[in-house]
Structure formats: C-alpha cells, structure tokens
Amino acid sequence: xxxxxxxxxxxxxxxxxxxxxxxxxxxxxxxxxxxxxxxxxxxxxxxxxxxxxxxxxxxxxxxxxxxxxxxxxxxxxxxxxxxxxxxxxxxxxxxxxxxxxxxxxxxxxxxxxxxxxxxxxxxxxxxxxxxxxxxxxxxxxxxxxxxxxxxxxxxxxxxxxxxxxxxxxxxxxxxxxxxxxxxxxxxxxxxxxxxxxxxxxxxxxxxxxxxxxxxxxxxxxxxxxxxxxxxxxxxxxxxxxxxxxxxxxxxxxxxxxxxxxxxxxxxxxxxxxxxxxxxxxxxxxxxxxxxxxxxxxxxxxxxxxxxxxxxxxxxxxxxxxxxxxxxxxxxxxxxxxxxxxxxxxxxxxxxxxxxxxxxxxxxxxxxxxxxxxxxxxxxxxxxxxxxxxxxxxxxxxxxxxxxxxxxxxxxxxxxxxxxxxxxxxxxxxxxxxxxxxxxxxxxxxxxxxxxxxxxxxxxxxxxxxxxxxxxxxxxxxxxxxxxxxxxxxxxxxxxxxxxxxxxxxxxxxxxxxxxxxxxxxxxxxxxxxxxxxxxxxxxxxxxxxxxxxxxxxxxxxxxxxxxxxxxxxxxxxxxxxxxxxxxxxxxxxxxxxxxxxxxxxxxxxxxxxxxxxxxxxxxxxxxxxxxxxxxxxxxxxxxxxxxxxxxxxxxxxxxxxxxxxxxxxxxxxxxxxx
Length: 674
Known about the structure:
- The chain is α/β, with parallel strands linked by helices.
- Among the domains are: 3-158, 2-Layer Sandwich (Chitobiase, domain 2), CATH 3.30.379; 508-671, no CATH class.
- Strands 9, 10, 11, 12, 13, 14, 15, 16 and 17 form a nine-stranded mixed beta sheet that branches.
- The protein starts with a strand and ends with a helix.
C-alpha cells in the first residue's frame, strides 16, 4: 500500500494529495487508520466471499451490507443472496475471513482488521462479532466522485476500548412496539454498541408476558406488553447483530405495576392501579415475607429461561422507604433483626435476589444504590449518581459501568456526553481496579417520549457516546465529533430510524402544512428545557399528548449551536464566512416574524410558543444592532447595553417548555460592542 498519511489514535493528519474524506469521517473512530491514495471502484461485478469458521449470521449481515451498498450507489450488483450454501465467487472483490464463531458474552473479541487497495477488500477477525464491526466501518467508508462510487485505500486495525457499550430503552413508562426496538438495535449496530438494556417494569407499566403470574402483564401492562415470543424475536434479532439483551425488573421500589395484580407483594397491601404520574412513588415490595421471595424466585426463574444472557438487572434505585417507615410489621422486623436503616433492609432483600439469580446461572446488575458491604463482588454496579460512586465501587472490588453523564433524556448537548469518560485521567484507580470499569450505557428514560419521538432523543447524540466507549480515550476533538456525527446521522436514516424525517412531519402537522418553513426557522433554534424541568413547568403525565412544539424540537439544535460557535469565532478574528453566517441568520429570524405570527395565531396548539417567537424577533434585532456597532468600530452606549442584556435575560424564560438556544450567542455579540 502506498501511504500518504497516517491517522493514528485520532491524531490529525496532513496529506499533500487528494484522498477520500470518508476515511477520516468514521464514527466511532478506529484505533488505527492508515490512508492511501488508491481506490476500489464499485460496479455490478462486486462480489463477497466468506471464509474460515464464521457464524451463520455473518452470511446474512454480509448480504445486508451488499444490499445497502447497492441501495446507496444505485449499482445493480449481480451477486445472488449470500448464504452458507452459495456458490463461491471466483476472484471476489471482498474476502471476509473469520477464525471462529465466537460466543456472544461480555468480553467477546470484537477486533478486526480491514485492508482495501485498488483491487481487493480483506476483512479479518478473530470472531464473527469482529467481522460485524468491520462491516459497519466499511459501509461508512463508501465515497464517490465524478467517476462513480468507490472505497478508499485504507488499512485499519481496530478494537473496542470497553467491552460493555450499551443503550437503555424504557418501554415501561411509554409503551414501545417491537419495530421501535428493532430499528434502534440497527442504529446501535451502526455505531458498534453491543448491549441493549430493556427497562421492562416500572410504576407505569409491566411490559412482559409471564405465564407463571399472568396478572402481572394482564393488569400491570394494560394490554401493552411483549409476549414471550416477541421477546425471543427481539433477542434473536439482536444477537444476530452482536447485541446482548439485558432485562431490568426494577425492585423493590418502582413496583406499582407489580402490585396491581398481586397486592399481597406490597408492604402496604391495598388496591393499586397503574401509575400515570412521573417521579418517585411510595409503593414498595415487602422484604420481610417469605412469600415475596417465593414469588420472585418463580418469576425470575421464568425470566432466566427466557433471556439467555448471563446478566440480569434488578434495578434497586430510588426506594424512598416511606411505606417501610409507615408499616408496623416492617418496623417490628427491623427491631427484631437489629436492622437500623432501610439501606440495610434493602441489602438483605438484594442478598436474597442474588441467591435466586445465582441458582439460575445469572449475575446480578443494579444501580449504585445496591452497593453494600454484604453484597458479593460478583455483582455489577451501574452508576447513575456520579463518577465518585463508580470509582468507590471499583476500589471496593466491584465491576462497574457508567451512566451518569449519559442520560440522553435530559436533552443535553452531544459535547457534554462526549467528554464524559468512564475512566478519565486521574481517576485514582490502580490498573487492576481500572479493569473493573466495563464501560457504560446511554439511558433513554421513557417519560417524555413516544414511538414517534424517541429516535430523535436517542440519535444522533448516542453516536457520540458510542465513540467514547469504543475509541481510544485521547480522541476528544469536539469539533471533529460534530462534523462526523452529522454524517452518521444521515446514514442512520437508511436503517429506518425516524430522527430526521419525523422532525419535518411533526412540524407539518402542527401548522397543518401551511407555514412549515416559518415554523422550522423557530424550531431550529429551540430545544426542550433540560433535565427534568419539564415536569415542573406543566402537569405532564403518561396520558398527555406528546405532539406539541416542544416534542418536535430536537436536542442539541445544530443551527443554534453553529450560530453560537460562529459568534465565538468572531471574538478572535472576524472571518468572512462566520460574519456572513451570523448576519444571515439574524436577518432570517427578524424578517420571519411577521409570517410566523400568522401561523401561530391560526393554530391553537402553537399559541403557547407565541411569546417565544416574539422574543426571538427582539433578540435578533438586538444582534443586528450589535453587529452594526461592531462594524462601525464604535462602542455601544451603556444604556443600550443595559437594555439589550435585560431583553436577553427575559428571552431565557421558556414557553411551552421550550427555550431559545441562541441567547448566549446574542449576549456574546453585545459584549463585543463594549
């Protein structure tokens, strides 16, 4: 291979001749990439040969790759369906060689090497799962020029930094059909994630069929649950794509849906109904009755037979202990056993769960509240409360993974998640303790999402988290991340994900197809309020419609982010392209207002954001004035500065649970006029 540049562990490269930009646009970035100048042209004679000892699913995934390649290029690739019994092509363009099938479990070898020159593609891997990861890298490398489509000359050696790279999806709060789960599995595969964590039970719903205790799903699921056949289908679909499926049955708190059909499990056995509100609820299982453990033993044994993975999640978070405190027999039990605190009582409960799971060949996973000196070191601690807790658990000898900082339901920017690391520099962990850090999971809690909107909350930001968990830790260039995330976002669409197309569809519905462009100009710089502020601003619950303007807006709005960055760039040097970008958008926001107000007035569902539109016009005009002062070389009057900053403070107030994301950029413009 003729080497003209080297991309090593994410380091910038300088190449004096033309080469494919796709080779440096991969996400996640590989461990090592060498880029050449040749290219392999795609034509109808492109063929794939699979050799070695692969799993049968590799043939299906290679066939998927071939059809995606044909779909992207429009080239009528003539190789027939790829299968174990196919006739081996002569002089294939691509060779996939797998040494052994591999077993889908924590720590399976996912490494691969990919070599492309002008004549051949060679993909080598120890296991079938490495081949899967290499195929996703290859499809990202596809590029084009005036002559046609091609793969660039590259040599890639790649392997993941962490073995546990997960996404939690929560169908308990809002029901999500099987097709939603499957399309997000496809998205996970595209960015090399390997664990789907299904949060199946919570106060708002019990979403899995139990043949042993049918009232769990019949009454707690309200007709919206996965049959065991559907669960097997999801597991098989995921495993054929290198994704492990981990179920979570959240106990002893978050248990209202369990108690609808079986109130005798409750600490306070009254009549229960499925919860409609969000938050931390009081109902909790009774840990003092032997019948509770007999029930859980039978149920978890049933579930252990359904889910093949060696890990099972028992939740264990946010038990407020109020019902335990109110219960006379709980207090009596604590006095008789010498238990002082509810945390100790829950540790006793978790010990019993651990015994049940161990008998069923399962390892227990739980949120960081379950950590206790009496909990065996075989338990995995998932930290949602902070890096400090993760570090403490690893130092105590527990395997750990991080979710704090990866809560994608909080509508924080991709840059925030990207720079959050399960194993940061200066963690204080010894090499042995550092090996206990398994990785992390993005968490898509389901309170504020529906099948229509969930993809836009997961993607494309989760691609940034996927890179943090796969790529070397020193790959941290935020600007590069955003550039590559924009590319992968469009590629994810071909997998059926709706994060891009549903944006336009929801806007069309809001304005009944009249004034979509005017409404988009506002929505492009608006986002839902952050963290859980939405719950505090309105009376939201499980039954409300999630079809409003706030639901159409997208996290980390690109137009707003780019505007704020362009303004930031003006502080150092007024580049023409940045200045023109700022001017154009300020003018667009200001002149759009008159038509936008007509749209808002004629659609009652949009009345709540009219103040937001008015504030956008006001601060846009302030931005225009600020630029005029800057270009004149004169300082702005102090009276104007005071007025302008006051209006910006007003513009920070959300309306319809939505906030303008360009306020910081306008404030920076004002500061530049002093």
